[in-house]
Amino acid sequence: MMGFGRLITAMITPFDEQGEINWDATSDLIDYLIEEQKSDSLVVSGTTGESPTLSDEEKINLFSFVVEKVAGRCKIIAGTGSNNTRHSIHLTKEAERVGADGVLLVVPYYNKPNQEGMYRHFEAIARSSSLPVMLYNVPGRTAASLTAETTLRLAQIRNIVATKECASLEQVTQIAAAAPGGFKVYSGDDASGLPAMAVGAYGIVSVASHVVGSEMKRMIEAFTGGHPDRAAALHQSLFPVFKGLFTCPNPVAVKYALELKGIAAGSVRLPLVAPTEQEADFIRSLF
After folding, report:
1. CB 187 within 8 A of CB 168
2. Is 109 known to be catalytic?
3. 74 near 42, Cβ under 8 Å?
4. Does residue 205 contact residue 234 with C-beta atoms inside 8 Å?
5. Where found (predicted)?
């Protein structure tokens, strides 16, 4: 199975003034994330891409557009997960049809399945496609949490190749210690990215890499190159940004930060709202 690299950006979806996808801005953003921020892969239509408010048509059009624009310069991971197994299978098949390199499948939210239900959900989606699958465990958003034991059970399925883990460093450690060869653990939390790598994570699925990706890439390369002190210093310098971008609901802050840098991102769709004046002042202070 192909690799997704060490630094994966969970890409925003740029909107225009009418709240529709801004395709020109999306094109420019892709170039910027690859060339300036050094992303190895892009997650398209994940939570940071405001997937809850994108229609299926918009998601599939995004997958196709990004695949064509990237043209092999990095890997494309399509966010096709939901709390409806049949719906996720449909989106996964569409992502494969338009040329995505893999899919990201979030733990089912709201209906709160047990561990066996989660296993069967992910198993069914994985077996419906030949695409590599990255699991996504984010209990702060889904209420339910995929255990390390169930993750390791799923890792035995041929095309389930990675997990984006947001539960705890303890869980990252448990999975990394017992995972089969080739299965990768990614931190889904920028602030825990380097600590997670220290206990066995392979890389980071990042929001902050929209604005400090090149610095994060240097941090990762310092760590993997045998210079943990240098990596720690970079982590410490970036830590205020890692934490600050989550002072309001994601992706509100990172979209505003991109606009500060002159990168067209637009605002967010309801029920999210633009930052307050106080929040905007704080985000500006980070840069």
Report:
1. no
2. no
3. yes
4. no
5. Cytoplasm
